[in-house]
Amino acid sequence: MEQLMRNFFLYLSKSKTLTKLARKYGLRFGAGRFVAGETIQQAVSVIKDLNKKGLSVTIDYLGEFIDTEAEANEMADNSIEAIRAIGSQALDSQLSLKMTSMGLDISDELVLNNMRRILDVAKENDVFVTIDMEDYERCGKTLEIFKKLRSEYDNVGTVIQSYLYRTVSDIEDLNQYSPNLRLVKGAYKESPEVAYPDKKDVDENLKKIIKMHLLNGNYTAVASHDDAMIEYTKHLVEEHNIPRDQFEFQMLYGIREERQLELVKEGYKMRVYVPYGTDWYGYFMRRLAERPANVAFVLKGTFGK
Ligand code: FDA
């Protein structure tokens, strides 16, 4: 049943028609629990609240199904606006973005152009930028773009997903760039030809790459709500005397807020991924796919009053 629901929401997340409808009608159906608002001003006010509680942030201007150059340029402009807001208000926040929103499906030249514009402003404002990882089809291309940018900039990182078979060799290959990586399980629907179908294998592989990347001496963001992954990391860093400024935990806005604060209290760096913008639909559907309890929450919020 859980697998069926997961597939259903992942299928819905790819609907262009529903994405457009959602854009038109604003944050609905409980999406506000996971999305900080539709404007940069709303996002800034959420970041300030989180920062006050000792939480660091990475913000993401949401955007999916970008298929014109003008849209990709506009997405880049919005990310630049976000970076300037972070810099001018001295917020404790990084930026996250997706290569498809920068024009990955249009041309490499467009993506590189937009990314260089963003990374230049980010550098001036001392803001770190993480390239989110999307579906398998785009993984190789995204990593190639990352490598190119990493050799020009030191304020850029990316994401590696433990559900892919290629992951361990990607970690090995990327090591020469000493990259700052966010390690996750993976959020898209992938075929068993390219990704572990069994959750147990995905979990084991996440532990494996956390260990590899940390012991390689690289900065590691462990992005998971799973206590097993968090406890594993805590033991690992203790065992190998890895300093606290070489790693951090990350969670999504609206998920396990108490656990986030507990980790801050324990002295760990904890970063919250805060999405905002009118294109909340696909992001919201992927969160529903991850956890049936989120669906119950949404139904209660929508119908249960
Ligand atoms: P998983 O979903 O396997 O859950 C394991 C356990 O965690 C649960 O059994 C429960 O104990 C606990 N848990 C989970 N959710 C909970 C909740 N709401 N309340 C209480 N307990 C809960 N993916 C991707 O493909 N590309 C990307 O770029 C990113 N980026 C990214 C950034 C950040 C900051 C995060 C946290 C995640 C991503 N992801 C991602 C998503 C990631 O790949 C994955 O889909 C989700 O994090 C869900 O997997 P978890 O590791 O959190 O645990």
Question: In words, what does this structure look like?
Answer:
- By secondary structure, this protein is of the alpha/beta class.
- It has one domain (35-279): TIM Barrel.
- It has twelve helices and eight strands.
- It has an eight-stranded parallel β-barrel with strand order 1-2-3-4-5-6-7-8, surrounded by seven helices.
- Helix 7 links the parallel strand 4 (156-161) and strand 5 (181-184).
- It is globular and about 50 Å long.
- Bound molecules: dihydroflavine-adenine dinucleotide.
- Dihydroflavine-adenine dinucleotide binds at residues 132-133, 159, 161, 182, 184-188, 223-226, 250-252, 255-256, 273, 290-291.
- GO terms for molecular function: nucleotide binding; proline dehydrogenase activity.
- It is an enzyme of class 1 (oxidoreductase).
- It comes from Sutcliffiella cohnii.
Number-wise, the strands total: 8
List the helices and strands in order: HHHEHEHEHEHEHEHEHEHH
Instruction: Characterize the biggest β-sheet.
Output: 8 strands, parallel, barrel
If you compute it from the alpha carbons, what radius of gyration comes out, rounded to the nearest whole angstrom?
18 Å
- Heteromolecules bound: dihydroflavine-adenine dinucleotide
β-strand percent reads 5-15%
EC number: 1.5.5.2
GO molecular function, one term: nucleotide binding
Enzyme class: oxidoreductase
Domain Proline dehydrogenase: 45-298
Summarize the structure.
The protein has helices spanning 2-13, 16-25, 40-52, 69-88, 108-124, 136-150, 167-174, 199-215, 227-239, 257-265, 281-290, 292-303, and strands at residues 56-61, 93-97, 129-131, 156-161, 181-184, 220-223, 247-252, 270-276.
